[in-house]
Amino acid sequence: MSKAKTLAGTVSAGGVLDNPSAIPAANISGTVGSATNIAGGSNGTIPYQSASGTTQMLAVGTAGQVLQTNGVGVPSWSTPASATTATNLAGGSNGTIPYQSASGTTQMLAAGTSGQLLQSNGAAAPSWLTFAAGTSITRTTKTANYTLVAGDKGNLVVATGGTFTFAFTAAATLTSGWCVYLQNAGTGDITLDPNGSETIDGLTSFIMYPAEARLVVCDGASFYSIILELGYREFTSTGTFIVPPGVSGFIIDAFGGGGGGGRGSTGDNRSGPGGGGGAHAQMSIDPIAAGTSVTVTVGAGGAAGTGGAGGVGGTSSFGTFVYAYGGAGGTAQGAPGGGTAGAGGGSDALNEYEAGGGWPNLRIANRLGGQAQYDVQIFSQVSGGGAQARGGGVAGATGFSAEWGGGSGAPYQNQNATGGPGGSSMWGGGGGGSGGGPGGYAGGAGGGTGVWRTGGGGAGGANAVNGTAGADGAANRGGAGGGGGGTDANGGAGGFPSGGGGGGGRSNTGLGGAGGAGKVFIKMI
Known about the structure:
Largest sheet: 5 strands, mixed
Structural class: mainly beta
Number of helices: 1
Number of strands: 29
């Protein structure tokens, strides 16, 4: 029987046993210093101890996974979740700002100086901007043509003169983000005119009207504006209104011209009749496309009667939207006021002392044989002009009043009497008073405005004294009628706008007063 072999001591890694299988494991003792390979496993497997003295292999994971410990349990492969919140970002320093310079690439913008603003530069890196030397706005005034430049950025430029142009430096030169505040504090029209073919609010140019203020912004190619304060435009002569951008509508106040007063005469023993007041028409209009040109017509005041009847007041209008008709010139039949749907009418064929007011208007006549004839005037019509009162043989005859239409001028008195007062108008022009009759009489007062009564306008002149001119209208009302001249004297002129002229006193030298001119007032809303 052979004796078992025993191996004692240290086995080096490079050592080789002659016949290791001949030595039972129980008879091997000592320590292995270094193992070149571990038995078992395959490419990518990870050894771990499942128990003391027991080594096992963890199967291969997938690319990108991480090895996760499970305490004393078997380790495992884990797929990490994407980070959704970062407590801190690597890099940078106090005051730096992170931004993406490319997809998946974060960089830091260096800290700016105190008071600067962060400006976007599109896809390029952001930058710090010093805005107009801080937050202050500098106000400058201009009275003549001026070109807006880069240095006007963020400032207020105010037009304080008449009519001129604000031109713009090229948008590309001003660059995107340039802006300026513009205000028209003058009395003229200020044209905003971009460089070359560039546009502002889609137009090659447009007008800023008085009281208007805008913020204008550049995007590097064009200009755009925001209305800060709405403007107005008053026409005292015929012209063209060009609709500005950004306006939601208009309120139009049109005033027709007042009729001129008639001349007195010794030939038929009469004094001159006063002229009828012009109408006042007000209307709200819906928006009109920006850049549209609208013709504005302003009616002239009727000419003073120098050889008989006074001239008819002209019609004022805003395009085809609003019309205000003029008052009739003073004639032997009187002078009706203008209406908003028709001018002051002429004499009635049935009665030389009767004439209709401007439409719409309604009168009821009462004619009784052998008696003085009177009309009952329905003068409360909203927009009709007043018809004249009865004149022939009636002492103290007066003009009738109206609301929006013009008051009528008083007709002449065919007797020795004081001239009759003109009719008033709540909103239109007052009628002129008639001149004083033969025998040294005073003229009648012109009709007022803003009141519902006869008289109240220019005072009639005493014997041989000219009548007083009617006062100009205030608070968007018509002017008062001129007073009639005393015997041998001239009538006073009608007030602006729309006042009827006063009639001349009885004589060949008593001339009528001129009617007040009309106007058109446009308020943007």
